[in-house]
Amino acid sequence: MDLLQTVGQCDNGYACVYQNNLSWSSPTTPLPAEAHPRLVFENLFGEGGTPEERRTALRQRASLLDSITEDMNRLKLDLGVRDQVRVSEFLDSIREVERRIQKAEIDSKDSPLPDLDRPMGVPDSYGDHARLMFDLQLLAFQADITRITTFQIARETSNRTYPEIGVPDPHHPLSHHGDDPGKIARMAKINAFHVSLFAEYLEKLQNTPEGNGSLLDSVLLLYGSGIGNPNVHNHTNLPIIVAGGAAGGMKGNRHIRYDKPTPLANLHLTLLNKAGVRLDKFGDSNGKIDNLFEPLSL
Q1: How far is Cα 137 from Cα 54, in angstroms, rounded to an integer?
Q2: Is the separation of the CB atoms in 292 and 270 below 8 Å?
Q3: Which of 201-205, 224-228, 253-257 is the most confident on average?
Q4: What pTM, to 2 d.p., does this model score?
Q5: The predicted structure's pLDDT at residue 57
Q6: Half-sphere exposure of 287 toward its Cβ, with a 13 Å CA cutoff?
Q7: Shortest CA distance to 277 belongs to which of 92, 101, 93, 148?
Q8: How far apart are CA 283 and CA 251, in angstroms?
Q9: CB atoms within 10 A of CB 166
Q10: Angstrom distance (rounded) from CA 197 to CA 223
Q11: CB-count exposure of residue 16 (10 Å: 0-12, 13-18, 19+)
């Protein structure tokens, strides 16, 4: 929700694209993030509030994508091999948008969702903005428009202030607290606020019926941070939450602490395997997390 509108070097010598995008379709192709609730809504459901208005808008967008695809295919005929690869990656992104539009069209024909009020702007309150973004993700899961979301609730280098919880300090400078007890207390207040918003989201998932249980029973969510002690940029002892029923396989209600340093990528590899993405290694992983899920019954 804290997009940087800058270009060039952002932090640690990396281009800003690495701070503004968490999801990538390839090592060189980011999937741009969107923090405006109205634009997210229109991407998921179309521009109108009623099912018929949404279907009409979706058909128009699908037609536009068809024309873009045709133009790009013609352009590839005049390009070298390297540029053809780049165009192909771009076309893959278009086809993914097209797939979402087609699925939304199908779902909107007999959607169990009520008519939705389209958000018209970004709420002034950070908490209200976050809650609205979480609600949109819940609706997308409920309608089965998408099964994967990536949401950056705040960035480590954010200079956002939190007057709504009594913290006027900019977030990032406050994180370099110099072991000042007052600053540490205000940082803890921000962290608790962020986690409380995530807890509200989990509660809403729990209260949303899905099959014989709730939507929370069917999802698998990873919440965390890339920093353990921000004052010294320490990347160990990361605070990580794994939530959801994972379709009946999650062993929950536990706090797991490791005696020896364990790569976070081990957890990523374990979750990918649970989601059906079979990999032998991910990042710097050196194994999987044992006993996170119940064994499959054969």
Answers
A1: 18
A2: yes
A3: 201-205
A4: 0.76
A5: 65
A6: 5
A7: 148
A8: 25
A9: 8
A10: 11
A11: middle
